[in-house]
Amino acid sequence: MCKDCQEDKHGEAGETLRQVGVWTTFGIWAVVCLGGALFASWQGYGGRAFATTLTTFAFLLLVTLLLAARDVADGIASRFGPGGGLFLSVCVFLFYLFYLLGTGTFQISRAGAMAGLVFVPLGLAVWAEGAAAGTWQDFLTILGIWVFVKFGPIPWWKPRSSQWLWPYPGGHLAYVLTVLVAVNVALASFLLVRRLKGTGYTIGWGNRWGLYAVGSFLVFACVAIPLAIQMRFIAFAPQWNHWSNYIRLSIAIFLFTAWPEEFLFRGLLQNCLSRASKSDLAGWWTASVLFGFAHITNLGFPNWKYVILASVAGLFYGWTWRRTGSIFASALVHAAVDAVWHFLFRTV
User: Fold this and answer.
1) pTM above 0.85, yes or no
2) How far apart are CA 328 and CA 319, in angstroms?
3) H or E element: which one contains 345?
4) Tell me: the pLDDT tens digits for 94-131?
5) 3-state DSSP: the chain helix, strand, coil percent, rounded to 5?
6) Could you give the CA distance from residue 185 to residue 11 in angstroms, rounded to a whole number?
7) Alpha carbons 53 and 177: distance in angstroms, whole number
8) In angstroms, rounded to a whole number, what is the distance separating the alpha carbons of residues 315 and 281?
């Protein structure tokens, strides 16, 4: 029996989640943006191009965080309907044009590529509006968003230019900005147009939330670390001399890797698979395996060791998401796993 029909604010156990409010979300957003701006300034960035890029980043991050605040996404969808998704998509595209013009990198081909990446998913969502979750349009949109983040729109005439869409500053923010655009597009398509329930796109927690998250991380560590060492995938190599970077890197992993991946693979893919198959178990296992295969190109192709370990990780992340009803919990587990890997182990 599929349990995905429950509301966003409830976990598998049915407990109500407590969520952060709008003003707390604004505070988090301001701290992240200010910290990023100060760090970039310390690195020597400045001028109009830098200000334009920072403004674009700030807008995309604000939407990413704000729609996870209490009642914001539901309120927008209820008041404006699909128009809210259309408005957000138009804003994303306009801010991209602002970025191109402000950094002096405008090209018709870049603008056209971004228009397709933003509005095609929106069109698919409008096409499927009113249909039960798990339509072919839903899965095609999820696949397209994953391809966009994983590979980027790489022109055939520039096969080595994965930063083509975001050339300033030297492609260094290409991944971060691509991820934020992808999350914004997914939010417009699934939360505002499709109004998909059960995504768990919240910054929230429940009474047993910490138990599920910590327990999931510890059990996974007990399983995955010996397995990865036995497979000669990792080796114990702590980087104690880099401890000062731990907090900054952990926050970056959470915001730009763990949170987007949990939204895509748990909140959207596992959710839709469970609804389409009418089985939580089928959705959980299938999404976990697909999560594993999504990593097959990491550190060389085909990397079957990565596929196996990522599939196992996906099982724990998916379980945490279902038990807590929030991608915040599964993203914290995900980020903790990645951070421990970066600081305590090296890939063999």
Assistant:
1) yes
2) 13
3) strand 345-347
4) 999 999 999 999 999 999 999 999 999 999 999 998 89
5) 70, 5, 25
6) 25
7) 9
8) 10
